[in-house]
Amino acid sequence: MALFGAIHAAIIVPIWTRLSGGIPFAVGAGLAIGWAFFELPGQARLNVGVMRALAFGFLLWATLIPMTLFGVIVRATGIHGQDDTWEVVLELVLTFGTGAATGRLISGRWRAALALGAASVALTLTQAGPIPVMNSGRAASLFGALAAVYLVCMIALGFIASVVSTLLRTSAQQIVGPERG
Q1: Radius of gyration for the chain, computed over Cα atoms and rounded to the nearest angstrom
Q2: DSSP string, 45-114
Q3: Whole-model pTM?
Q4: Which residues contact 27 (CB under 8 A, 6 or more apart)?
Q5: Beta-carbon neighbour count of residue 16 at 10 Å?
Q6: What is residue 127's DSSP assignment?
Q7: What are the boundaries of each domain within the chain?
Q8: Concatenated DSSP letters of 8-49
Q9: Whole-angstrom Cα distance, residue 116 to residue 134?
Q10: CA 158 – CA 148 distance, rounded (Å)
Q11: Which residues, at least 6 apart from 89, have a Cβ–Cβ distance to it below 8 Å?
Q12: 33-71, pLDDT tens digit by residue?
């Protein structure tokens, strides 16, 4: 959240006073992202590696591209209006579908598909929907900068997953004994 706030302040306007309202969404997104990270191939067990974390961060950002393109099309054609409930529903379905299809293609498993779909929707909700990249160059820059935020956050998640995995493995060996672990 702090990275998002800093990037938003640098590119658009400062939102520090409203940022705390996003904490529940950020926590939910973090849980969904952690689940998806664990479910995809190369599960977050031990020594996740920076490259795998970077690839996953980019993958998360890429699952938001179809929703963003839909927003561009809706605005460019002039059908974006005041009653945008249908747009929100379609954007969420598109985001979930993109994440789920990607998760299924990568893993071949429905559980990973569900996890990546949920993570993509959670990210969408956390960033309050698609970034309206057609509105200005600054909005487009914000969408691009979010890729960097997701990459940094995934490196942190990969590190945390490796540390937790090592601690759990060490604890299990102490309980069971090194000869059985």
Answers
A1: 18
A2: SS---HHHHHHHHHHHHHTTHHHHHHHHHHHHTT---S--HHHHHHHHHHHHHHHHHHHHHHHS-HHHHH
A3: 0.81
A4: none
A5: 11
A6: T
A7: 22-176
A8: HHHHT---HHHHGGGHHHHHHHHHHHHHHHHHSSS-SSS---
A9: 27
A10: 15
A11: none
A12: 989 988 887 544 445 677 888 888 899 999 999 999 998
* Averaged pLDDT in 10-residue chunks for the chain of 181 residues: 82 86 87 89 57 87 94 87 83 96 93 96 88 86 88 83 78 69 49
Burial 95-132 (b: 16+ CB within 10 A, else e): bbbbbbebbbebbeeeebbbbbbbbbbbbbbbbebbbb
Instruction: Tell me the CA distances in angstroms from 98 to 27, 52, 60, 85, one per residue in order.
Output: 22, 20, 10, 20
End-to-end Cα, the chain, rounded Å: 39
| Those residues with Cβ within 8 angstroms of residue 126's Cβ, 6 or more apart along the chain or in another chain | 22, 25, 26, 28, 29
Q: Tell me the C-alpha distance between 73 and 161, whole Å.
A: 39
Encoded tokens for 85: 């409930």
| Residue 41 CB contacts under 8 Å (≥ 6 apart), including other chains | 106, 107, 112
